[in-house]
Amino acid sequence: MLAQGLLGFQYEQDRSSGGLTSLAGLPLYLDLTQASGLRSIIHMIKSQMLPVPLIEFTRADIVRSGICGMWVRAFDEANL
After folding, report:
1. DSSP class of residue 47?
2. Whole-angstrom Cα distance, residue 59 to residue 69?
3. CB 48, CB 36: distance < 8 Å
4. Do the beta carbons of residue 7 and residue 31 sit within 8 Å?
5. How far, in Å, CA of 28 to CA of 47, rounded?
6. Which of 34-38, 71-75, 76-80 has the weakest average pLDDT?
7. Of 26, 29, 2, which Cα lies nearest the Cα of 13?
8. What is the DSSP letter of 7?
9. pLDDT confidence bin for 51, thresholds 50/70/90
């Protein structure tokens, strides 16, 4: 469940057996980008052409649980 309070309204879990709509979580994502200020930051980066460094991690950087490592290795081996 989404932590409440960031947005001006409350999200409720859909408990129906119908599954997800074609929108899935997109409306929630859009609401959160607006409320968190992410949209403003992206606009500032683009308008001022600020550099955005990219940091690539390798398998050696994994210090979390073993299951996390398994997932990363699976994605790496599948070239995803």
Report:
1. H
2. 7
3. no
4. yes
5. 26
6. 34-38
7. 2
8. S
9. very high
